């Protein structure tokens, strides 16, 4: 099969005539072979174009309509295929198909995304990441449309448009792009106390993950599991990366966005293409009405978590992502997640946000995909048998034959069509509901600060400092001083240390009064170690990227030792050199470079090695990107191993005694020690000095 030919088969293209081999001819959409694709039809050599040029008109017409509306939120995303594998039967808890037996595999499509930026924005925005999973179960599609942060900004869906308007670019000027560091966002959230818990999360390093592979996912809302007897158990869903948690630091994020705006999608693509399939464990926090009644907060409130220390996360299976898409548009862009897509054995709760989402997602797909038949697209269609009496509409591709398109009907069995099945069909959990129709917020949703404080005290001191720095950075971008003060007033209800540090960082003349609380915060919730990234880091360097900067004359043996050790740890090695053609080694061999130094800054790597000669280091010292390579790696707390890089270090401003995170291989440090230390991700002590 030849690539790049019209009518090539693939996702959604199966109806086309297959063309292959040398016989492939460029055709119009009507199948007419094109004679000339280089010139439009003209009257005379230099004359006007002719309207009868159907090939030109068809080509431009189709091009003009290539774009569909981008998602209003989560526009920038990256989708991949994989599967979910169940560990043990959970049939006592749920009749949902993926959980019925040990080892059962269910095909999955996962789309990761940022929220605020437009489709062409950069990957390392400070933002929530979408973690949307479509499971093609044998009893229908189940979409678990989650985020990498377990809480949300608002409690009522009616505030969603306001929240999103405030977060995205300001309407008069159309900027800033993909960032909340502007007046409108902070104005809105400072007037919306329920956002405070979420603010702590997005100002933490959770909002700048190192990669999709190293972040958690959360279903956010409380859902129900329902077993075959109709018994319901409350559940919160978690995705735990087997690779461990890891984030970048803010200054690194800013530079990565310039060096590689596609950093996250490239990382996932490269990992899968190299056979290093990322995995997450699906975990469930299971609880009943008794727990719900005695828990300090409302289990329906999406601005609250249930600490793992209070209800443990039970691992029930693993998600493996092992296949990139064939076509970005057909799959990643056209995939339509809907929170309403659940299967027998799973059910909603009355979390108000979830209820609102159940309306919004279906509605948005009609706008984006233009037809109620978006379910006919291969990425959206169930992989189990399906049969409805729904028909027609734009682009209908599943068109049943025969005369019968309604039920009940009295036609014979072979043509009468499908029937409902009260036994196997979806049955809603019969929760008893009563109460007057009113627009109100439950009193049990009134605490806005206690868990924000719990999050803050659960962080290491370095992570707390990063939260302070992020608040200061974002609020420094607000022009209106009273907005900055209002946020600090809210933070005083979270933690005095946080509020005073932010006020100090902003240079506020005086500490504002604490914001009025609808309910007095609880100040003694125990810290939850599960909330810290640093405490839940990786236990190996597998899947991490080591950048090795080399110069001409490099010691071939020393390079081979580093390369072999990195490979043995299942980490990735990328060679950076002054020229992309590579370098000559001391024994006359060649090392190919992956990056020229200008395009391979150290922010793209988890740790760096510099293997130079004295002359090579002196040459690097004259190159600004090489000096940045070293000074950034140092400033970002990275482990650095080197040989003969002294003059480069000096040129980069690193003089005197360097700390234990910098290891001199020529002076006896070993590559094994270096890689061993890299498991700690960063040399954290450097941030404390
Ligand atoms: Fe979404 N959200 N959302 N959201 N959301 C969309 O659906 C919406 C919320 C999330 O990769 C939209 O297809 C409302 C929470 C993800 O395609 C839209 C409310 C959580 C994705 C929409 C929320 C999410 C979306 C835009 C408040 C975490 C990307 C395009 C009531 C649990 C899915 C689209 C993908 C996308 C509405 C709140 C996660 C407009 C009204 C809470 C991961 O329908």
Describe this protein's structure.
- With 689 residues, the chain is an alpha/beta fold.
- Among the domains are: 77-376, Catalase HpII,  Chain A, domain 1 (Beta Barrel); 545-687, 3-Layer(aba) Sandwich (Rossmann fold), CATH 3.40.50.
- It has 19 helices and 18 strands.
- It has helices at 54-64, 160-167, 183-190, 196-202, 250-259, 263-273, 289-294, 328-333, 352-369, 450-457, 461-476, 481-491, 496-506, 556-568, 614-621, 624-635, 646-651, 671-678, 685-688; strands spanning 77-86, 105-114, 129-137, 140-147, 217-218, 223-226, 232-241, 279-287, 314-324, 346-347, 545-550, 572-577, 583-584, 590-591, 595-596, 607-611, 640-643, 662-664.
- Strands 1, 2, 3, 4, 5, 6, 7, 8, 9 and 10 form a 10-stranded antiparallel β-sheet that branches.
- β13 (583-584) and β14 (590-591) form a beta hairpin.
- The radius of gyration is 28 Å and the shape is globular.
- It starts with 53 loop residues before the first helix and ends with a helix.
- Residues 1-15 have low confidence and may be disordered.
- CIS-heme D hydroxychlorin gamma-spirolactone 17R, 18S binds at residues 71-74, 77, 111, 113, 130, 132, 145-147, 152, 157, 160, 220, 302, 335, 337, 353, 356-357, 360-361, 364.
- Keywords: Heme, Hydrogen peroxide, Iron, Metal-binding, Oxidoreductase, Peroxidase.
- It comes from Nocardia cerradoensis.
- Residues 15-25 have a biased composition (Basic and acidic residues).
This entry's quaternary arrangement is single chain
Strand content: 15-25%
Assigned CATH architecture of the domain at 77-376: Beta Barrel
Q: Write out the CATH superfamily name of the domain at 77-376.
A: Catalase core domain
Amino- and carboxy-terminal Cα gap: 60 Å
The CATH class of the domain at 77-376: Mainly Beta
| Low-confidence region ranges | 1-15
* SSE-based structural type: alpha/beta
Determine the CATH topology of the domain at 77-376: Catalase HpII,  Chain A, domain 1
Helix percentage range: 25-40%
How would you describe the shape? Answer: globular
The number of E-state strands comes to 18
Total helical elements: 19
Can you summarize the main beta sheet? 10 strands, antiparallel
Bound molecules: CIS-heme D hydroxychlorin gamma-spirolactone 17R, 18S
GO molecular function: catalase activity; heme binding; metal ion binding
Function: Decomposes hydrogen peroxide into water and oxygen; serves to protect cells from the toxic effects of hydrogen peroxide.
Domain Catalase core: 27-415
Keywords: Heme, Hydrogen peroxide, Iron, Metal-binding, Oxidoreductase, Peroxidase
């Amino acid at each position: 099969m030849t690539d790049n030919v019209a009518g090539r088969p693939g996702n959604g293209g199966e109806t086309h005539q297959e063309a292959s081999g040398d016989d492939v001819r460029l055709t119009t959409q009507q199948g007419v072979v094109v004679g000339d694709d280089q010139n439009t039809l003209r009257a005379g050599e230099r004359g006007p174009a002719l309207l009868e040029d159907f090939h030109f008109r068809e080509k431009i017409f189709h091009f003009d309509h290539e774009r569909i509306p981008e998602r209003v939120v989560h526009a920038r995303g990256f989708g991949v295929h994989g599967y979910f594998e169940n560990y043990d039967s959970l049939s006592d808890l749920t009749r949902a198909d993926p959980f019925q037996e040990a080892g059962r595999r269910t095909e999955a499509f996962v789309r990761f995304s940022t929220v605020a930026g437009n489709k062409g924005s950069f990957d390392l925005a400070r933002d929530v990441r979408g973690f949307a999973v479509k499971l093609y179960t044998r009893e229908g599609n189940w979409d678990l449309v989650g985020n990498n942060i377990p809480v949300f900004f608002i409690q009522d869906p009616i505030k969603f448009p306001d929240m999103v308007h405030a977060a995205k670019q300001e309407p008069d000027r159309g900027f800033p792009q993909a960032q909340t560091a502007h007046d409108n966002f902070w104005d809105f959230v400072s007037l919306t106390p329920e956002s405070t818990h979420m603010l702590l999360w997005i100002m933490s390093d959770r909002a700048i993950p190192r990669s999709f592979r190293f972040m958690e996912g959360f279903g956010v809302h409380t859902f129900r599991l329902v077993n075959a007897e109709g018994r319901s158990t409350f559940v919160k869903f978690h995705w735990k990366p087997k690779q461990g948690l890891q984030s970048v630091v803010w200054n690194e994020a800013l530079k990565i966005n310039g060096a590689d705006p596609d950093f996250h999608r490239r990382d996932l693509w490269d990992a899968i293409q190299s056979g290093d399939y990322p995995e997450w464990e699906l975990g469930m926090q299971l609880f009943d009405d008794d727990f719900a009644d005695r828990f300090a907060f409302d289990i329906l409130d999406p601005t609250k978590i249930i600490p793992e220390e209070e209800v443990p996360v039970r691992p029930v299976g693993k998600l493996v992502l092992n296949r990139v898409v064939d076509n970005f548009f057909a799959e990643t862009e056209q995939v339509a997640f809907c929170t309403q897509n659940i299967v027998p054995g799973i059910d909603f709760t009355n979390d108000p946000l979830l209820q609102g989402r159940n309306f919004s997602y279906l509605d948005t797909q009609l706008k984006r995909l233009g037809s109620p038949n978006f379910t006919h697209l291969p990425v959206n269609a169930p992989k189990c048998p399906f049969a409805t009496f729904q028909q027609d509409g734009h682009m209908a591709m599943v068109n049943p034959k025969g005369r019968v398109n309604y039920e009940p009907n009295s036609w014979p069995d072979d043509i009468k069509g499908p029937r409902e099945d009260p036994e196997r069909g979806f049955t809603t959990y019969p929760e008893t509901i009563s109460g007057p129709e009113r627009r109100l917020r439950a009193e049990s949703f009134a605490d806005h600060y206690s868990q924000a404080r719990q999050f803050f005290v659960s962080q290491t001191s370095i992570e707390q400092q990063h939260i302070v720095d992020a608040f200061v950075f974002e609020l420094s971008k607000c022009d209106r001083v009273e907005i900055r003060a209002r946020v600090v007033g809210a933070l005083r209800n979270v933690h005095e240390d946080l509020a005073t540090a932010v006020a100090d960082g902003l240079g506020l003349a005086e500490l504002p009064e604490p914001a009025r609380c609808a309910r007095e915060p609880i100040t003694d919730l125990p810290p939850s170690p599960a909330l810290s990234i640093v405490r839940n880091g990786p236990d190996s360097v597998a899947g991490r990227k080591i950048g090795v900067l080399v110069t001409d004359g490099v010691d071939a043996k020393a390079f081979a030792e580093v390369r072999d050790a990195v490979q043995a740890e299942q980490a990735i090695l990328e060679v950076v050199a002054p020229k992309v053609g590579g370098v000559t080694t001391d024994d006359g061999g060649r090392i190919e470079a992956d990056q020229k130094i200008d395009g391979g800054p150290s922010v793209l790597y988890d740790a760096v090695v510099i293997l130079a000669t004295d002359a090579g280091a002196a040459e690097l010292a004259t190159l600004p990107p090489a000096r940045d390579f070293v000074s950034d790696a140092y400033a970002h707390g990275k482990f650095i191993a080197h040989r003969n890089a002294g003059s480069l270090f000096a040129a980069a401003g690193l003089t005197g005694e360097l700390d234990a995170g910098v290891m001199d291989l020529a002076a006896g440090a070993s590559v094994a020690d270096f890689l061993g230390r890299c498991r700690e991700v960063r040399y954290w002590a450097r941030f404390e000095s």
